[in-house]
Amino acid sequence: MTYIDPSPLHERCENEPATGANPEAGTIADPRDELPDHIPALRAFAISLTRNGTEADDLVQETIMKAWSNFDKFKPGTELRAWLFTILRNTFFSSKRKTKREVSDPEGVHAGSLFEKPHHDGRLAMNEFSRAFDQLSAEHREVLILVGANGYSYQEAADMMGVAAGTAKSRASRARARLCEILGLGEGEGIVAEQSGATMAVLGLSGRQSG
Amino acid sequence: MSDRHIMTEEKPKAKLRRDIDENLKRVFDDAIEEEIPDRFKQLLAQLKAKEAGK
Known about the structure:
heterodimer
């Protein structure tokens, strides 16, 4: 990633007085001042990717440092959070590639555990859901957190992930399908379609798998 | 995905997706702690100080 040298082309006028120049521009302050506002979300995103608090905080620290020294590359008017998320995920995936530090077989931990049937109100039990989420690949967790939890469009998510929109979309639908598979829910079926949760948990996988 | 079945499948499928997204939001929100750890406050203060010293 090329976050290293700040481009001289977009050098800010550091000497320009920040006050008084344009009263309407009072809100267009140094975007770096907004960084703290995004730290909680950055940490949550980092935890979603690493599934480990210590690793997550190291990742956030690296992200803040990279962002700080590259703020001249931030385009005003674009979303700061998306920009920070991009730095964070790039840092995460490139260090993951380097160290080949794959999450050590999360299936081994969870595969044997029986998932409870979904609650009667149709909501998935939270524990069950987050255990299933943990079993997804980092790429799948990433796309679901961006699109499903943060409400980014496929295009926005794709831009952050550095892929085409179509790739983000198909990745998201594979991730959802995988999640349903782990949860024993056939995609396309209602969560409370069956009275017998136990039967459903066993048979859920026979639900139709769309291609 | 075949369009022929859309009438029968769209509803439960949309509901399932909504349920999934709702749970994803909870997974994400559960990981959010509004309090910023001192570690990051210090880091930002250091970066700012370094910048001011330039």
